[in-house]
Amino acid sequence: MKHKVVAIFILILTFYSTFGQSPDLPSDFLNKEWHKERRQKLRESMPANSVAVFFANAVRNRSNDVDYVYHQDPDFLYLTGYREPEAVLLIFKDNQTAANGTSYNEIIFVQERNAMREMWTGRRIGAEGTKSILGFEQAFNGSLFKKYNVDFSKFAEILFYDFQNDVRDNPRDSADLYSLIEQFKVKINYPKKDNSLIAAKEQPKNNLNTRGLYPLMANLRGVKTKEEIELIRKAVMISCVGQVEVMKAIEPGMSEREIQGIHEFVFKKYQAEDLGYPSIVGGGHNGCILHYTDNYKPALDNKELILMDLGAEFHGYTADITRTIPVNGKFSPEQKLIYELVLSAQEASMKACKPGVEMSHLTTVSREVVNKGLVALGIIQSETEKHLYFPHGVSHHIGLDVHDKGNRVLEPNMAITIEPGVYIPNNSATDPKWWGIAVRIEDDYLVNKDGCELLSGYAPRTVADIEAMMKQPSPLQKFKLPDINPKK
User: Fold this and answer.
1) Whole-number mean pLDDT of the chain?
2) Cα dihedral 354/442/312/33 (nearest 10)
3) Measured between alpha carbons, how far is residue 139 from residues 106, 297, 417 in Å?
4) pLDDT computed for residue 14 by the predictor
5) 101 phi-psi bin (left φ>0, alpha ψ -120 to 50, beta other)
6) What is the C-alpha separation between 440 and 306, in angstroms, rounded?
7) How, if at all, do strands 50-55 and 157-159 pair?
8) Phi-psi domain of 152 (left: phi exceeds 0; alpha: psi -120 through 50; beta: other)
9) Range list for CATH 3.40.350.10 in the chain
């Protein structure tokens, strides 16, 4: 009976890999033609007589025998659509000839089908599924990579990202990522540990190039296609809805973690697969910690602001949106002054956002507005004074990474953030009435030929609109859970 069950299970899995993706998966992933076109675009930009080599992300251990939920390397996902670990992709500038005379310009090695492992950790598409689902003509099980006999010495350049030596070895699997990397190192005559490329200040005088791949991928990934823009719009809208629902539901006494939970529930309700980054939910002075992710504060104070920086990841593409709101629904005079100063800085940078402008210029514009405003409020003494009330830049690319790859000069169809902020920690060298006020306003934009389009306008940004939204009722106000604290 046991053998019969296993046989049926193998038959089911074979069906999925032969005839398409599981019906349990979304039907609106980027299609194989899109990924193929991206590989061709990379090929066209590669140097003469070169090969580009990409590895899938490693499986990361959480503790003991539990791993973190797997997240594919963004470049690998971009070029292949493959969402599993233990894989390597080679893209050639020029056609290669296989032993059987077949011509090819790309080849991928993936993890092998294994019915027992799939029973525990999920379906694999295998080599045949990689062909039928993802459109690769040359796809093989990873166990064959060791035997793959290409002469790497013939290439003028071998493009790859250098290794950080942070991949675990599974001694029971000779085709895991660790093994694929070690086999690749042998094939390219990679320097030993005492002569690593990581430590070298200059590239060695051979054909190994660990610096040329990044600018090629930045050129590609920085400017989004129409298909990517559609996914980014969805991720942004999902994240905006989360902000709106919190504005309606928040009450003094709620915890930071409860607020985080409302946002992330909305993300899951819309089938967003993941978070673009760890959620930042900081009440009061916690908002002054730029990447505050503890989110432990058990009860928000009636007089505090709460800074909420969260982004849904939808089909690999992430939003990055921050709103700062008063816990009690009404900004105090001091909170309002700081908030409107930050909003003015953001609006000024938004007006400066256009093709041909350096992203750093958006920071310069915001910083000028903020410094002038802080002087007017008596928080600093001069516009040139050095201070930490605004310690970060205001813009970065978004896409498959929350800080996505891309060039620093803006071009049409780049997706970016603009996110000025002012943070005044307790015990700062200013009037105590400002202490504990932390405001960041972060929105997502699409650069177009004339300027930029605000993508995240669904989430209120002005003081008046935020306060009006916070007066709206929320269905979550009726959601009450049992008290789990023991009676004293």
Assistant:
1) 93
2) 10
3) 9, 50, 38
4) 46
5) left
6) 10
7) parallel
8) alpha
9) 2-220
| Burial grade of 84 (CB within 10 A; 0-12, 13-18, 19 or more) | buried
Task: Estimate the crossing angle of helix 333-352 against helix 359-376, to 10 degrees.
Answer: 150
The C-alpha atoms of residue 68 and residue 170 are separated, in whole angstroms, by: 16
Half-sphere exposure of 190 (CA within 13 A, CB side): 19
In the prediction, which pLDDT does 201 show? Answer: 53
How many other C-beta atoms can be found within 10 angstroms of the C-beta atom of residue 289?
Answer: 15
Amino acid, single-letter form, for residue 166: D
CA distance 276 to 139: 30
Q: Which parts of 49-176 fold into alpha helices (H)? A: 74-80, 115-121, 126-132
Q: Are 320 and 398 in contact (CB under 8 A)?
A: yes
Domain with CATH 3.90.230.10 in the chain: 224-478
CB atoms inside a 10 Å sphere around CB 427: 10
Helix (H, G, I), strand (E, B) or coil at 423: strand
pLDDT tens, position by position, 128-172: 999 999 999 999 999 999 999 999 999 999 999 999 989 999 998
DSSP character at residue 118: H
pLDDT in tens, 235-266: 999 999 999 999 999 999 999 999 999 999 99
Amino acid (1-letter code) at residue 257: R
28 by DSSP, 3-state: which? coil
Residue where the block lists tokens 């893209």: 91
3-class SS of residue 107: strand
Helices (H), 419-458: none
- Assign domain 2-220 one CATH number from 2.40.128.50, 3.40.350.10, 3.40.50.300, 3.90.550.10: 3.40.350.10
H or E element in which residue 8 lies: helix 2-19
> What one-character-per-residue DSSP string does 367-411 give?
HHHHHHHHHHTTSSSSTT---SSS-S-S--B-SSSSS----SB--
Question: For residues 221 and 407, what is the distance between their CA atoms, to the nearest angstrom?
Answer: 9
Residue 140 β-bridge partners: 109
pTM of the full structure: 0.93
Q: What secondary structure does DSSP assign to 330-365, as a single string?
A: S--HHHHHHHHHHHHHHHHHHHH--TT-BHHHHHHH
Determine the Cα–Cα distance for residues 65 and 231; give it in Å rounded to an integer: 34
- The CATH number assigned to the domain with range 224-478 reads 3.90.230.10
What radius of gyration, in Å, describes the C-alpha atoms of the chain? 26
400: tokens are 């498959």
CB of 458 closer than 8 Å to CB of 438? no
